[in-house]
Amino acid sequence: MNDRPTGPARRSLLIAGGAATLALAAGCGTGSGTATGPENTADATPRPGGRLRAAFAGGGPGETLDPHAASLFADAARAKALFDKLADFGADLAPVPRLAAGWEPNETLDTWRITLRRAAFHDGRPVTAEDVLYSYRRIADPRGTFRAKASLEPVDLAASRAVDAATVEFRLKRPYAEFPNTLAAFGAYIVPEDTTAFDRPVGSGPFTFVSFKPGASLLVKRNPAYWEGAPHLEELEFVIAGEESARVNALLGGQVEYAHELNPATARAHEGKGRIDVVRLPGSAMQGFVMKTDRPPFDDKRVRQAFFLIADRRELVDGALSGAGEIGNDLFGKGCQYYASGLPQRVQDLERARALLKEAGAEGLEVTLDTAPAATGFIEAAGIFKEQAAKAGVTVEVKVGNKETYWKDILDSGTFASYRSGAMPIESHVSQRLLTASTTNATKWRHKDFDDLYQQAQSTPDEKERTALHERMQRRLHDEGGFLIWGFADWIVATAPKVRGVSEAAPANTLDWARFDKLWLA
To answer: What are 186-201's pLDDT values in tens digits?
Structure first.
């Protein structure tokens, strides 16, 4: 979509449920999803009642229901059941209103006024502007490390105010043309004012809390007063099953009706046989490795460039993902707005890789690759890359860690690690992972001039000029960044044949992914 207006003409109010939208993000060209079972469609009349059990990989006994602390897909799915954000990303990664009924900037794009819809928390209290400000201030507290903190950085929360109970005025530190992306940021959920404990969470989401056993299960029930309409299901239970085989076996055995994240080989083995329905969402998950740019050996960009050239991306996609995906080019968000599609596709060049390592004084390099069975293809990709690196004279020691603590472990520790991400706008990826103050900056990419370029892009109302600035950032990351992005994987979920309403076009982390309030049992 290249015909969006620029400047003040773009400032149309986004009205919930209406056709008027403020066009702020283009969709990603990852294709549409497919489902194998003819019964896994949403064309039947919804049937109320029943309990659906959904199996996810979890985070162990230290799990929390604090939505601002969400980091895993299980966390996000549970938070979505219990809480709401002001906005969320649609399948095309454009922000869609949720608790916000609409938003509108001033002429200079440094003040945005948010109008809230009529919604209530589970205890009957209305959702107000003060709840919104409290939630955002809690996330942005300098003492905290909540993931959405980096996304909220442009907001001057001390100067922001509640105009009235249903209107929030956000004052920004600088003009921000794509501010609604912040409202949809991962983890930017709204909680009641002064909430500090989440052992019995109170949100405004489609389900209300019943019971929680960290590392085991969460049981919630229908919220009959939900602002978007009560869920079809009477109850929803999140069951933790860390191993993919355990999730699939539970689905086949009737212990659950929904299994999150199947690997491609498992999906192929069961497709079309009538026992389960498989839904594929092409290109939903970025797959790669992170190189920490602040420590040896990856503090030398020549070593990073050599590793870019060591990777045979097709072999990685075919071997680690069983071909269920497409190759990457060391940039996030393939097909999305701002993606630098004009850059040449990087291919394996072992001779040039050896030359770069020699220039860097890194001949005979030995590195440890941290990985874990924390995501589909991690262990397989690590083994494949180890063999590829050996051809360039690099010794890679694969170290398999604890899948339950893996994401926390690799954020600051080690030098080289397996990595994955669900979908989000490229602008959000930069703010969360590539700025000096980003709380999930796994590559430790910290460059003031890059931060300045990003802030300049944020403040540029003209889309053509903003795109040019993003391309400059993309080119630099492609040349010397710390993300070795070798592929984009299909996202695969499976359900019992009686489950209806599963979206076939929603990448992970978007609005209609894990929308259990829209599912029903036939």
So the answer is: 999 999 999 999 999 9
Q: How far is CA 90 from the centre of its chain?
A: 12
Q: DSSP label at 46?
A: P
Distances (CA, A) of 74 to 26, 421, 442: 27, 14, 21
The answer for residues whose C-beta is within 8 angstroms of residue 405's C-beta and 6 or more apart is: 59, 60
Residue 290 CA, chain-centre distance (Å), reads 16
In tens, the pLDDT along 109-159 reads: 999 999 999 999 999 999 999 999 999 999 999 988 898 998 999 999 999
DSSP string, 504-517: SS--TTSTTTT-GG
**Per-residue pLDDT reduced to its tens digit, 36-73:** 444 444 457 999 999 999 999 998 888 999 999 998 89
d(CA 462, CA 5): 9
Q: What is the DSSP string of 54-81?
A: EEE---GGG----GGG--SHHHHHHHHH
Question: What sign does the dihedral 95-100-106-109 (CA atoms) show?
Answer: negative
Q: What is the pLDDT of residue 10?
A: 36
**Helix 313-320 × helix 378-390 angle, to 10°:** 140
Instruction: Give, for 314, the enclosing helix (H) or strand (E).
Output: helix 313-320
CA dist., res. 148 & res. 438, Å (int): 9
